[in-house]
Automatic annotation (TrEMBL):
InterPro entries: Gfo/Idh/MocA-like_OxRdtase_C, Gfo/Idh/MocA-like_OxRdtase_N, Gfo/Idh/MocA_Oxidoreductases, NAD(P)-bd_dom_sf. Residues 140-408 form the Gfo/Idh/MocA-like oxidoreductase C-terminal domain. This is Gfo/Idh/MocA family oxidoreductase. It comes from the Bacteria. Residues 7-127 form the Gfo/Idh/MocA-like oxidoreductase N-terminal domain. Belongs to the Gfo/Idh/MocA family. GO terms for molecular function: nucleotide binding.
Length: 418
């Protein structure tokens, strides 16, 4: 396989630390040769790590994409509402593209991106990393083997985790739907994609309910200040006390969430950043607008029905699923890697224990990167393409419209826009 080269647009947590790590782990396969990142410190740290010369470091994607094509692909890892223009410009320039999810919060932009990938014959791979996990890959294999007969019902739950929700969706970059995108799109387009993949059919109709119920001003403890470090008297009884989370919680420290607060992430810098920075705010005094719990019901054209539940109010950040068929059922826990298959006739209970790495969506991030690199380097077909990603994104937007309007949405009609 030839070595694949890339440019990176957006060196934040996902682009700068997760997907680009594949280049450091597999330097013979993949190399990042240029970066566009507006934050000077972040840009310089990334450039030093990947040995990128200053002349190939840019403040924005416009400067980078104005240059002659210098790599095989572009990784677009900007914020939700900033994907469309660099993706389109990169494809026009001749780059294949890896695009962080969601593609866009705008229905027309999502459809156009899919159309342009086809027009220019480019790989447009959206980061639906769950398809690459050992867990969901095994579930797909079991369904294709007919282990539970004809699939009839899917029950799927995403446990966001109280700490993850507070970090990303109350204090963080994805807190405000108007500035980023609705929760069901930004966080759960993964899950729409998985249900679409497992059902193996097009969506016919969709409904949804959900609210922002807890993380708002009216639920603030008496006297709670705007920032945790402004002498909050509730610090010992509050699960969301920022200094404790960012200095002690293993998900913040070991999984690198603390780098969203400040880089470098030593205690002195973290505490200083929390004094007046966004991640130091009281969770009841933020400008968040996304829901903290939501359910979605889906009817597919092949008569499979699916129910999805997203909730912030869990201890773990996990996904659990049940697949119910005519001959048996499957129960699965992605976090533990345990799958149980029950046969209705024999009443046999088979348990499968998968190896699931603790980090990177249980190993999915690096599996996706490997697949993307080999699609380019070897011309292999990947697990998903732009047209499928377009459909699952539109399912998420249809679910949000159903929630807001209190209606059942005809998916075929929803997808019409011109």
């Amino acid at each position: 396989m030839k070595k694949v080269t890339a440019i990176l647009i957006g060196a934040g947590l996902r682009g700068g630390y997760v997907y680009s790590q594949y280049a450091l782990d597999h330097p013979d396969e993949f190399q990042v040769v240029a970066v566009a990142e507006p934050d000077k410190e972040r840009r310089e740290i990334f450039a030093a790590k990947h040995h990128i010369p200053e002349k190939l470091c840019f403040k924005n994607y416009e400067e980078l994409l104005a240059k002659e094509k210098m790599a095989d692909c572009a990784m677009v890892c900007t914020q939700d509402q900033m994907h469309y223009e660099p993706v389109v410009m990169a494809m026009e320039k001749g780059y294949h593209v890896l695009c962080e999810k969601p593609m866009s919060p705008d229905k027309k932009e999502i459809i156009k991106m899919g159309e342009m990938a086809k027009k220019y014959n480019r790989i447009l791979s959206v980061c639906h990393v769950l398809r690459y996990s050992p867990f969901f890959s095994k579930l797909k294999e079991l369904l294709e083997e007919g282990r539970i007969g004809r699939l009839m019902t899917i029950q799927h739950m995403e446990e966001v985790g109280y700490w993850h929700h507070a970090h990303s969706f109350v204090r963080g970059n994805w807190r405000n739907a108007e500035e980023s995108s609705p929760m069901i799109l930004q966080k759960c387009c993964h899950d729409m994609d998985i249900m679409l993949w497992l059902a193996d059919s097009k969506c016919e109709s969709i409904s949804s309910f959900g609210e922002l119920s807890y993380f708002k001003e009216e639920n603030s403890p008496e006297g709670a200040p705007a920032y945790c470090l402004d002498g909050c008297s509730h610090r010992d009884e509050c699960a969301f006390y920022a200094p404790r989370f960012y200095l002690e919680h293993p998900k913040a420290v070991d999984d690198g969430l603390v780098y969203a607060v400040t880089d470098p992430a030593d205690p002195e810098h973290v505490l200083e950043a929390l004094k007046k920075g966004p991640y130091g705010r009281c969770v009841f005094h933020c400008d968040n607008t996304v829901v903290d719990h939501q359910s979605v019901d889906i009817h597919f054209e092949n008569q499979v029905t699916a129910t999805f539940l997203m909730t912030a109010f869990t201890n773990q950040c996990a996904r659990r699923i049940r697949l119910m068929g005519t001959k048996g059922e499957i129960k699965g826990d992605m976090d533990t890697g345990v799958i149980e298959i029950i046969d209705f006739v024999s009443q046999n209970h088979e348990t499968i224990q998968l190896h699931t790495p603790a980090k990177g969506h249980n190993g999915s991030d690096m599996s996706m990167m490997r697949d993307f690199v080999r699609m380019i380097g070897e011309g292999k077909k990947g697990k998903t393409d732009a047209s499928v990603s377009v459909e699952s994104h539109l399912m998420a937007l249809a679910a949000e419209e159903a929630r807001v309007k209190g209606q059942v949405i005809d998916f075929g009609e929803f997808c019409k826009w011109n």
